[in-house]
Amino acid sequence: MDFTISEELTSVQQLAQQILSDFTAVDQLKQIEQEDERFDARLWQAFAEAGLLGLDIEECRGGTDLGFYALAMLCEEAGRTVAPLPLVPVLVGATGTLRRFAPDALAERWLPGIADGSHIVTSALEEYQNDDPSRPGSIAETTEGGYAISGTKICVSVAERAARILVSAQCGEELVVALVDPRAAGVKLTPQVVTSGETRHELAMTKVQVPTEDVVATGSAALEAMRWATLASRTALCATMVGLTDRMMRMTGSYTSEREQFGRAIATFQAVSHRMADCYIDIECLRLVTQQAASRVVQGRPAAEAVTLAKIWWGDAAHRVSQAAQHCHGGTGVERDYPLDRYCLAARQIELTLGNSAQLTGQLGREIAAQYLAAAG
Question: Parallel, antiparallel, or unpaired for β 174-180 and 260-261?
Fold first, then answer.
């Protein structure tokens, strides 16, 4: 079997690296971090001009149609630089769902603008105590010409900038996925400071009117849409974590090669070199787990177990890599002004997004137990 990355995907990776290197210097990141939203509009527009926002959008709608795998590679490169961009909620959760499940008229209205950077459509997949958008607590009621949606979503990225926010709600026995205007009557946005330090928003909806033309899917199609959005978003988060942890390891390797103690570089100490070797093994093994999950999502094969395992493993591995990196840096590793700090916080935020390791392990255990009991008769 050939595991070689295609030339097209390699070009995407190299282009992303080049653009990110121009916009993610330490001083530039510090400047963006002074802002609550932590969104680099100039970098976002640079991605748009390079065609990177349209990787998973059809050519006829302004994209390059390279697919989800290319988007996952873009997320990895963004993670490597802790780029202040909402790639997963916008390009995966919202854009990917619109491409695959929205009616043609709705996709035509929004996807070209997403690709050229003129519009932002984000997604709100999480609720309090609920990381499964296919079983939301939010309620939709049928009205003349659409739906009235009520409920609360949390940790919504770039909510104030977004032209629309993709949400799911339960209408009786039927699931509804729709685009909500964050400026519509009945919408209240409340800032939430998350673990990474950035400001996201709580989206509280009270009978928000959504016209039929803004409905993405209903019934079984909506259920399939939310399952895809969850699997794809978790996979993209894992890809982001590949870049984050790889950069943490390499940053630590560089530091320990220069930092001397007792007249020699601490990288030559067996305890240090063994910890870095363990980090390398963790990252490379879990890179393969993430690639497997991404390939299953792309191919439309059953991906739930592979994605869940990848998310569980990355949550645990991120702890080990973060701790090793901070320990090997000594006191420097916990300084807020040193670059390692933002990587550790970002990794922790990803672990907590769309299900943490403990929660997903419990879920996987229940599913395995149910399968065993069913097989046992």
Answer: unpaired
